[in-house]
Amino acid sequence: MSEMMSVTLPRGNTSCFTEQNFNRLLVTMKEKAYPEGTHLFWEGDFSDKLFYVKRGRVKLTKSTDEGKELILYMYGRGDMVGQADPFFSTKHSFTAEVIEDSEVGVIEQKDLEIMICQHCDFAIDFMKWMGIHHRLTQTKFRDLMMYGKPGALCSTLIRLSNTYGEQHGENILINKKITHTDLSNMIGATRESVNRMLSDLRKKDALEYDNGMIVIKDLVMLQDICHCELCPNEICRI
Which residue range or ranges hold the Cyclic nucleotide-binding domain (predicted)? Predict the structure, then answer.
C-alpha cells in the first residue's frame, strides 16, 4: 500500500526524502480533511505536529499588533508544513490557514522522534528538509529587506512563476489568480503601492494580464530589479 501511495502522491518540498524514507512518513500519517477557511494551527499553539498536504493549499501568515497580515509561504500538494523542532517544546511562530479544501496527513512529534532515532538515513533526509526551509526563509528576508518594495515585488513574481508558472512561448503565465491584496500581504506593502508598481512594470512591458492572471513577459528585467541570485526552484518558490 505504501509503495503505491509513494507513486501517486505528489512530492513538493519533500522531494529531498528518498522513496523509502518518504514511505516511512506516509505510514505514520493520519489523514484528515480541512475545509477552506479552517486552520492547521494558530500562532502560539504548541508545536507538536507536522502536516503533509496531499490535496489543497495552505498559507502561512504572521500578524502584527495592528492586524496587518504578512503572507510568508504558500504551500500546495506535496509540501510538508510545520515548525521543525522535534526535540524541544516550542510554540508556533506563524498561523497556517487552509485556503482550499484540503486533505492533510498529520505526523505526530512522538512518531517523528522514533523515526529519527531508529533510522539515521531518515534523520539525514529530515535535516535536508529543515535546511531547505532555512534557506527559503533567508532568501525571503533578503528580498524583503535589501532591495526595497520593487525588488520584493519582482522577487515575489519570480517565485510565483516558479511555483505556478506555465511556459507560453517566451512568456510565463502564473496559473493562479493572485490579487493585488495578496501581493501586498506577501511583501508588506500597501495595496495602492503594489498597484503603482505593477502599472510601472506593465508600462515597461515586463508583464501583462490574461483573464485576471499575471503573465511575465520579461523575466530578465524582474531578475535585474531584485538582484536575483538564481537560486534553485526548491528555494525560489512562494
Answer: 17-116
